[in-house]
Amino acid sequence: MIHVICDNARYYRSKVVREHWETSRVQLLFLPPYAPNLNLIERFWKYFKKTVFYNRYFESFADFKAACETFFRHPNQSDGDLRSLLTENLVIVGEQTPKNWR
């Protein structure tokens, strides 16, 4: 059995997809409906938007496109921020808070 962890995108729940998975060795496991801490891409996109879009005005689409391309072509520019943002340090509700977080 192959387990695939998915977000809750609608296409995973379509009738055609469900019928395919019923006879497949693949089992879909869904994240909770809103779980940005479990879905790293959500944190990445939030950082991308904050870095490229927020409080910025672009004269043209070409300027907007250039800003997006610069972000993705030079990922090491934000290396420190991304390393701390995309960690797997998760706190489970009800668990005792780690000592170094107090």
UniProtKB/TrEMBL annotation:
Ranges of residues in domain Tc1-like transposase DDE: 2-64
Molecular function GO terms recorded: nucleic acid binding
Entries under InterPro entries matching the protein: RNaseH-like_sf, RNaseH_sf, Tc1-like_DDE_dom
Name of this protein: Tc1-like transposase DDE domain-containing protein
